Amino acid sequence: MKILSILLFLLHSFLNSSNFSYKMDTHFTVTNNVIEIPGHLNYATYQLKGSWTDNYGKLGTILCNGETKIPKSNLVELFGICEITDEDKNKRWWTINRDKSEIELGVGRAKQIDGENIWKTLNNIDCNYAVKHIEGFSYMKINCNINEKQHEALLK
Q1: Which residues contact 11 (CB under 8 A, 6 or more apart)?
Q2: What is the end-to-end Cα distance of the chain in Å, rounded?
Q3: What are phi and psi of 76, to 5 degrees?
Q4: What domains are defined for the chain?
Q5: CB count, 10 Å around CB of 131?
Q6: Contact (Cβ atoms closer than 8 angstroms) between residue 103 and residue 133
Q7: How far, in whole angstroms, is CA 143 from its chain's centroid?
């Protein structure tokens, strides 16, 4: 099932690709605060802290806060907000969402809400992401289709 999810994510990204793409790789440490209601639901708030790089040679830090709900089906529902800061201290804010996937490995949607300076060009962009969680660490890849104007702005 995990491999199928990743293959579907990659196929969807390929079929919906434009001439340009924005790709971001992130690495996080994870802190969870869990409340378990036996036989019903696990509810957790989480914080992810880490770093990122992108395919335009930019890098920086990332901080995400959010919540997960894991019903008896063991398929996670997740929502979070991330503050992403580049090496020039420009910030941008993203949402991340996942519906009904495994907790350790999953695919979802990310969207930039707002950005400062160079990052304004990505405002309201919808992207796909894949994430893998391993023993307190997370690795996430984000892939966004962008147009030529956005591509040119990111080259600056």
Answers
A1: none
A2: 41
A3: -80, 145
A4: 2-155 (2.40.160.20)
A5: 22
A6: yes
A7: 9
Going by the DSSP 8-state scheme, the letter that residue 148 receives in this structure is H
pLDDT digits 0-9 by tens, 61-106: 999 999 999 888 778 899 999 999 999 999 999 999 998 777 788 8
pLDDT band at 126 (very low <50, low <70, confident <90, very high): very high
Amino acid at 127: C
CA distance 50 to 63: 7
Alpha-carbon separation of residue 75 from 71, 78, 130 (angstroms):
7, 10, 15
Q: Nearest Cα to 101, choosing from 145, 132, 80?
A: 132
Percent above pLDDT 70 for the chain: 88
Query: Which pLDDT score, from 0 to 100, does residue 52 have?
Result: 98
pTM of the model: 0.84
